[in-house]
Amino acid sequence: MAQDDIETQRFTIEEEQTRPYRRFNAQGTQLTMRLLPPSEREENSDPMSHFLASVTELFEYVLRDLQDSDMIGVTISNEVNVKDRAIGISFRRKDQITGTVI
Question: Pairing with 61, which of 8, 10, 76, 85 sits 20 to 30 Å away (CA)?
Answer without folding.
Answer: 85
